[in-house]
């Protein structure tokens, strides 16, 4: 194969990829790596909310409450989906609303990063950036959220298991392999 042919090897992404799953599953980290790998733009709904509000997520929760955050999340998701050409990582709660799931399914393909509770806890336990976990027993809170949410995340078009031994790059490989099972979403060029 000539150098020129090698340089032209790549991907054609036909629909936006929307990363869903629990806080700490790796949606932002893996989503950004996936976008770099596919050579497409990356968007993150949490980052877009923070930018629009000029406040951190804990500040928005503390000042305006979770219902207000969810309203902004829905508006931002609608805007980002209308302009998305690449990978869009969502916040951990975004896929729980039926209206958000409908918007995501209409425009893109949802990929659930399916990490188990122990892995999620190992990732989030030392950080205080997730307001929902600011409780007397954050592990019990995470467990309750996990158990309530898994049946909804399981509705995603594709799911990719996140194991403790997998790096962000390994997870990116796995997501690409899952996307390649859908020629209507991703093709090699
Ligand atoms: N495969 C991985 N291997 C090691 N560390 C990872 C992996 N994926 C993510 N991480 C790390 O775990 C933490 C949580 O990941 P990330 O912020 O991507 O999760 P998230 O799903 O976007 O969570 P949230 O819903 O809160 O936005 C980060 O510190 C990230 O660097
Ligand atoms: O799981 C959740 O409900 C959340 C996850 C984060 O991504 C943020 O969107 C926020 O902290 C709420
Ligand atoms: Mg994130």
Automatic annotation (TrEMBL):
Pathway: Metabolic intermediate biosynthesis; chorismate biosynthesis; chorismate from D-erythrose 4-phosphate and phosphoenolpyruvate: step 5/7. The keyword Cell cycle does not apply. It comes from the Bacteria. Its cofactor is Mg(2+). GO terms for molecular function: kinase activity. InterPro entries: P-loop_NTPase, Shikimate/glucono_kinase, Shikimate_kinase/TSH1. Signal peptide: none annotated. Catalyzes the specific phosphorylation of the 3-hydroxyl group of shikimic acid using ATP as a cosubstrate. This is Shikimate kinase. It comes from Rhodovulum iodosum.
């Amino acid at each position: 194969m000539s150098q020129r042919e090698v340089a032209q090897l790549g991907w054609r992404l036909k629909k936006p990829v929307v990363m869903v799953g629990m806080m700490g599953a790796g949606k932002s980290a893996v989503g950004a790596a996936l976008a770099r790998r596919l050579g497409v733009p990356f968007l993150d709904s949490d980052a877009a909310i923070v930018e629009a509000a000029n406040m951190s997520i804990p500040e928005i929760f503390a000042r305006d409450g979770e219902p207000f955050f969810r309203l902004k999340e829905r508006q931002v998701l609608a805007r980002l989906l209308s302009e998305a050409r690449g990978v869009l990582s969502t916040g951990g709660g975004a896929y729980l609303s039926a209206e958000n799931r409908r918007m995501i399914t209409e425009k893109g393909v949802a990929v659930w990063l399916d990490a188990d509770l122990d892995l999620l806890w190992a990732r989030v336990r030392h950080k205080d950036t997730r307001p929902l976990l600011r409780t007397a027993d954050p592990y019990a809170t995470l467990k309750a959220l996990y158990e309530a949410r898994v049946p909804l995340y399981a509705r995603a078009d594709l799911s990719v298991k996140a194991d403790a031994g997998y790096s962000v790059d390994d997870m990116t490989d796995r997501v690409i392999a899952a996307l390649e099972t859908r020629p209507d979403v991703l093709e090699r060029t």
